[in-house]
């Protein structure tokens, strides 16, 4: 079925070196990359074995001048980009890129939530279903995690804009709950309070790998800094949180093979 308002439909790496990033994620996640003809900033497409899952591009000069650093961003489907952008700003968000058409692809806008976390909204040009987020597929995003400075406000904001609901929660001691978020019965990820000495509020995306130890070695050999993991999570999978060689935060999730 077509994607619905509030679904994650695409992921995008903004980086300082697209060639190095393409090589790194190819080795770690197994993605192939190809150029997207006619697109600015050296835009490329990452694909898994079965479909396209993400994009990467050079940080635009004006964004770099404003202080943007390499990062991963997510695209959230909306029924109407212009209306969604207006509602987000009215709810305390910020618009960084006004609604813009990409011929043959769709209409998008770049915004930030009231805590300053950047994300995109988009309406595709076709009703084709995105499988960029697929919680059990290798090579796809398996988990979307928001670390925020105000968990209650963030949950209210995203729930109001996209219809997300609270699911189960896991206590995290002084940091409060790790609150799962669901959408039309599917668990998208979770919202947590950012660590006091950690990165600023941000989305972090966990991409599925076939073997966490092989992926960990490939990431380390490729110049990544591993901040956490491999660590087991409920369900028996293992996760890693790291920074790629250009400094973008990323997550990996997968099994530990015997």
TrEMBL record:
Residues 7-124, 137-255 form the VOC domain. SUPFAM superfamilies: Glyoxalase/Bleomycin resistance protein/Dihydroxybiphenyl dioxygenase. Pfam families: Glyoxalase. It comes from the Bacteria. InterPro entries: Anthracycline_SecMetBiosynth, Glyas_Bleomycin-R_OHBP_Dase, Glyas_Fos-R_dOase_dom, VOC_core. PANTHER family: GB|AAF24581.1, GLYOXALASE-RELATED. This is VOC family protein.
């Amino acid at each position: 079925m077509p994607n619905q308002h509030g679904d994650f439909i695409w992921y995008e790496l903004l980086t300082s070196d697209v060639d190095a990033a393409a090589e790194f994620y190819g080795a770690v996640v197994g993605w192939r990359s190809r150029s997207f003809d006619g697109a600015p900033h050296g835009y490329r497409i990452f694909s898994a074995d079965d479909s396209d899952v993400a994009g990467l591009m050079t940080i635009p000069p004006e964004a770099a001048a404003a202080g943007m650093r390499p990062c991963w961003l997510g695209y959230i489907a909306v029924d109407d980009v212009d209306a969604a952008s207006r509602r987000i700003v009215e709810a305390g968000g910020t618009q960084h890129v006004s609604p813009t058409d990409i011929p043959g692809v769709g209409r998008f806008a770049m915004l930030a939530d009231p805590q300053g976390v950047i994300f995109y909204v988009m309406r595709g040009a076709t009703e084709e279903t995105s499988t960029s987020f697929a919680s059990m597929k290798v090579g796809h995003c398996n988990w979307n995690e928001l670390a925020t400075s105000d968990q209650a406000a963030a949950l209210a904001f995203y729930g109001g804009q996209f219809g997300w609901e609270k699911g189960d929660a896991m206590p995290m001691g002084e940091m409060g709950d790790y609150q799962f978020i669901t959408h039309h019965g599917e668990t998208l990820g979770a919202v947590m309070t950012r660590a006091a000495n950690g990165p600023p509020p941000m989305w972090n995306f966990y991409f599925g790998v076939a073997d966490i130890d092989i992926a960990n070695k490939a990431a380390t050999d490729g110049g990544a800094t591993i901040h956490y993991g491999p660590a087991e999570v409920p369900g028996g999978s293992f996760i890693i949180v790291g920074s790629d060689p250009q400094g973008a935060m990323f997550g990996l999730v997968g099994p530990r093979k015997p």
